[in-house]
Amino acid sequence: MFMSRIVLQRLPDGRLFPHAFPEETYAAHKVIWSFFPGKPKGTPCPLHRFEAKPSPHFYVVSEDKPNDTSGHWEVKSSGYDPKLTGGDLLEFTVRVNPVVTRRDEQGKHKRHDVVMDAKKALKDAGKEKTELPAPGEIWQKALVAWLRARCAKLGFDFADGDIRVDGYMPTRIYGRKHGTPVQITTVDVHGRLTVADPPAFRKMLFEGIGHAKGFGCGLMLIKRA
Q1: Are the CB atoms for 134 and 128 separated by under 8 Å?
Q2: Is the model's pLDDT at 180 over the cut of 70?
Q3: In the chain, what are the helix, strand and coil shares in percent, each to the nearest 5?
Q4: 67-80 b/e with 16+ CB inside 10 Å = b?
């Protein structure tokens, strides 16, 4: 596996590409694919994350080295083979699309944003609007619970107080034909974790967390605490 940092140099019209969450989020998806022209159709999009500052750049985890033929990006790649043991303490950041899946009245599975789901649960419990916790508190509790429900399978553990949630943001994604946009929610989660199952944790680092991986979600960045 390779970990790459791909930094924007220039675009033909002089624009910076793109800001953190533009309406044209699909543009980022297309740029990522441009670095892997030989990938067969139907292959999952390489795991990636876009950052606008200090200059626009991507982090990418992939089986193959990315290659820019446009001359607009500087690509720096290195082998990615984290050496991990049980009990390792790591700092991390990950951008996720946090959803829960429930059956609707017709019995079909539908995905629901976890924050909106938490708000609905509070209202269904009889909470008046004036009684609801502050939005930041709802985000924090909902995202910690979402991560907690997945961490054992993904090979790590954490203390609830070591997790911080930022940037809860609905994002519109326009497809190839710019038809009706699809809306997803992205959240940045930061904190400390303990590696509990090194093989499962490595698998997660290579494959990501949650949904919307083709649109910049799921890549966990780590460093020693």
Answers
A1: no
A2: no
A3: 25, 35, 40
A4: eeeeeebeeebeee
